[in-house]
């Protein structure tokens, strides 16, 4: 996934899909707050076959449910050659208690299974984790996979927006996975994982309207949103007939930031898989509106400067001189922006400035991909797109807005993810630290050979 955010840009994680690994992050509620699933006796849990419809209903209702564990991702994965998709279910007393979507694909050492942001189980329930692990292992064996890697959606620890711990670590979950043979790859920071271990989230609970939403941001971000609105920037959802514009902006961003861009065909496949739950948003500058706004401001500034100049000529004071200097600089800035607008107008009457893909799930809205046109950065289109996406959440009754990946580094101003972190912090959310990558060896010999090879190759 690529996010191109104010004030600067860095890559996020990658959307884990069978098509290609990509940004991922947690959709879970904080471990300290979501209710635990009551533990049942080990004998009462059993593996069951489930349909896509059952899986969808379970994911929609589960506290850890997310788009990576949904029929949409099943369709996207199945659309990729060489990928097999299986659903695993765990039942107790006739009720589905856990579920997972596993994708199996060939690697250098044989088939490997992947479960992105799953399995959907309460990691604090030891017997449920045990039953799910056994079911995953059996499914992996049926696909001749030598290992399965999962990235649980459970929150390991909730943190403040500044990265400070805000609650206890979920060590019970980690212990339960370890007890069932899952090997943890460490509490990492930075980018590079298939599923990012650190995510930024905003809770929209209690925000009743657009005014309250805007007020919930910090002052700088409020200003950016208002500034974009006043500069003729509008956001709309686009259809597949305009995906070439979306792909072009993403490609330009990737070239600027030295990342591999996705082809337009991928976005068509994504839309086909997720349908109305995939929202491709485009922010555009309406030049005529911008020019009219700037001309009105220039007129007002000219009048103000003339008044201050006349006042200063009659009776010069330090205060009047300071005001005159300030308003004269504002007037010069307005003149400069109008001159720039004349240049922009040569590109057209309506200019695409930024684009983002948001994925809707009953549990959350995910900010997945984005890109922007560098020349139009002063129009703050990226901030306005976020605001409009959150307005959509309010309309749909979705109370969790997931900005997805951050690097997890909070104390280094030179960190590659600093710009993305500061942009997201401006919306006043909090941080979720996830468990990270866990691998279950299924064929011990092949697994150890692959691990040895990875160490020798430095991977």
TrEMBL record:
Residues 1-38 are annotated as: Disordered. The lineage of its organism: Bacteria, Bacillati, Actinomycetota, Actinomycetes, Bifidobacteriales. GO terms for biological process: cell wall organization; peptidoglycan biosynthetic process; regulation of cell shape. Residues 16-38 have a biased composition (Low complexity). It comes from the Bacteria. PROSITE patterns: FEMABX. The keyword Transferase applies. Residues 291-318 form a coiled coil. Pfam families: FemAB (PF02388). Belongs to the FemABX family. It comes from Bifidobacterium jacchi. One of its GO terms (molecular function) is aminoacyltransferase activity. Keywords: Acyltransferase, Cell shape, Cell wall biogenesis/degradation, Coiled coil, Cytoplasm, Peptidoglycan synthesis, Transferase. This is Aminoacyltransferase.
